[in-house]
């Protein structure tokens, strides 16, 4: 399995039968967890202390953290045949500040600056308390992952951030696969039970307290009882009906999301009394290859790539936030852009070779040849690249106002990927506090119900910065596991 590339799951997974259900692990890893952690409560189902719905970065982190804090009888439910959710496809990295890796590399950063830029990137519509909590916890989360063998010490820049704080695996590959492989391994070591092909349908609410989950497995329905339920079901991009319920204008957009991102967690939580906030804040990502719905990693722009329109002209500072770049792209002829880069960018982003293998990358032996391949006027493209190169060599001001990741193109082979916006991330969701407790509209907790990851709302406001989703899911995933374990131990 290659980083950042969508590959049909049936090509890459192995299935193991264990306990209650088939456990399937992405990327050829061995069985996640098979020792029975439940006790049989009745003929109808099983009794757990903690039921975690969703096996993406948030759900797996919650399971590991809860276990390490002394909790037992934990189960992770996954409706798909394999684990990892959209986290698997996370392409950039994990933003974090004041980390040991930044310090080692002489990068000066602060949690306060990270929080400020996150709030500014979200046009001050994010929840300042949740943002501070996330940023303050980010370095600890990087250390925690490192302790699990997931070392993110290759640091780059993403749009909207003024310092390098996007942490990637050592080889510069996309973060998702490394993260999920490491978290799955940690789940396996702890023998935490994972039930794949197990679709959570509804929360059981008893006198206002969430006490379990109704599930469907292989066509059979049962009820799992729980002292705490952690909703970690990710987003809704694969559910067109739900997308258009909140954003009618996004009808027909492609999505980068995997098939299990059907928004079930929003519906289940709302039915149990939780408030959903900012649900119309669905992020579209500016660099999605439209035939494959493959997201083209932001680090490629951070590494020097430019966007040109069908006339070979740049039209925006490529490092602006996703909402601005997407909007500018849609205004170009045909509503698309070519993401153009040289051999250096190709070589320094491992994901590019994978996009190439998938047939998404156009190549020319030089710029003129590339122009001919992509049907763009060669003189116009040359003028664009010459002008861009002048910014880096002469210190001239970039005509688009770009100040970050301006790296001159070298001579030689040139590449381009055709991109346009696609539905990427639901920034709204279940309202939570810094204990990851789900909250109702009047701010009251719903006993027994917690939420973490993309299913939650309010952190990113109306624009999420690249690299902040992974920070969110790890910081809050780890936190909710610890909070729930602490609460149950009292
Ligand atoms: P996050 O980044 O917040 O961890 P992901 O998208 O990575 O979110 O993971 C969420 C996981 O939850 C996905 O694997 C998805 O298939 C799974 N999921 C969504 N709805 C359900 C459901 N009703 N029952 C079980 N699993 C679900």
Descriptive notes:
By secondary structure, this protein is α+β, with helices and mostly antiparallel strands. Helix content is 31%, strand content 23%. It is built from 14 helices and 24 strands. Strands 10-6-5-14-24-23 form a 6-stranded mixed beta sheet, with helices on one face. Strands 16, 17, 18, 19, 20 and 21 form a 6-stranded antiparallel beta sheet that branches. A 3-stranded antiparallel beta sheet has the order 7-9-8. A hairpin with a 2-residue loop joins β11 (198-206) and β12 (209-217). α1 (57-68) packs parallel to α14. The longest helix has 22 residues, at 468-489. It is elongated. The two termini are 43 Å apart. Adenosine-5'-diphosphate is lined by residues 53-59, 77-80, 85-87, 199-200, 232-234, 260-262, 264-265, 453-455, 473.
């Amino acid at each position: 399995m290659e980083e950042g590339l969508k590959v049909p799951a049936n090509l890459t997974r192995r299935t193991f039968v264990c306990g209650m259900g088939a456990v399937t692990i992405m990327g050829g890893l061995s069985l996640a967890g098979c020792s029975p952690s439940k006790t049989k409560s009745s003929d109808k189902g099983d009794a757990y202390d903690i039921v975690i719905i969703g096996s993406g970065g948030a759900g797996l982190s919650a399971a590991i953290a809860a276990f390490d804090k002394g909790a037992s009888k934990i189960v992770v439910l996954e409706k798909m045949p394999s684990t990892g959710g959209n986290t698997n496809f996370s392409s950039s990295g994990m933003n974090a500040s004041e980390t040991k890796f930044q310090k080692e590399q002489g990068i000066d950063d602060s949690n306060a600056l990270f929080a400020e830029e996150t709030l500014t990137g979200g046009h001050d519509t994010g929840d300042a308390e949740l943002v501070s909590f996330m940023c303050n916890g980010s370095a600890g989360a990087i250390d925690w992952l490192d302790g699990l063998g997931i070392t993110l010490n290759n640091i780059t820049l993403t749009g909207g951030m003024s310092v390098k704080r996007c942490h990637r695996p050592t080889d510069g590959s996309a973060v998702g696969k490394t993260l999920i492989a490491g978290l799955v391994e940690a789940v396996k070591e702890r023998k935490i039970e994972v039930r794949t092909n197990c679709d959570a349908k509804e929360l059981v609410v008893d006198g206002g307290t969430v006490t379990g989950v109704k599930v469907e497995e292989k066509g059979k329905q049962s009820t799992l009882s729980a002292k705490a339920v952690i909703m970690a079901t990710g987003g809704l991009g694969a559910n067109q009906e739900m997308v258009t319920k909140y954003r009618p204008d996004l009808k027909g957009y492609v999505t980068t999301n995997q098939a299990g991102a059907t928004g079930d967690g929003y519906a289940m939580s709302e039915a149990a009394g939780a408030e959903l906030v900012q649900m119309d804040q669905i992020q579209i990502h500016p660099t999605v290859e439209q035939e494959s719905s493959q997201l083209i990693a932001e680090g490629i722009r951070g590494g020097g790539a430019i966007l040109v329109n069908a006339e070979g002209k740049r039209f925006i500072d490529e490092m602006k936030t996703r909402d601005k770049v997407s909007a500018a792209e849609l205004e170009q002829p045909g509503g698309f852009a070519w993401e153009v880069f040289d051999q250096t960018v190709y070589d320094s982003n491992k994901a590019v070779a994978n996009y190439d293998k998938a047939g998404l990358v156009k190549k020319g032996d030089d710029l003129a040849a590339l122009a001919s391949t992509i049907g763009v006027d060669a003189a116009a493209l040359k003028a664009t690249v010459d002008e861009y190169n002048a910014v880096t060599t002469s210190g001239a001001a970039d005509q688009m106002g770009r100040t970050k990741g301006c790296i001159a193109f070298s001579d030689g082979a040139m590449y381009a990927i055709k991109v346009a916006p696609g539905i990427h991330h639901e920034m709204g969701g279940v309202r939570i506090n810094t204990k990851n407790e789900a909250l109702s509209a009047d701010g009251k907790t719903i006993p027994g119900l917690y939420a973490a990851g993309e299913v939650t709302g309010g952190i990113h406001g109306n624009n999420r910065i690249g690299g902040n989703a992974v920070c969110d899911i790890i910081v809050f995933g780890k936190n909710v596991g610890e909070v729930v374990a602490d609460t149950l131990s009292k």
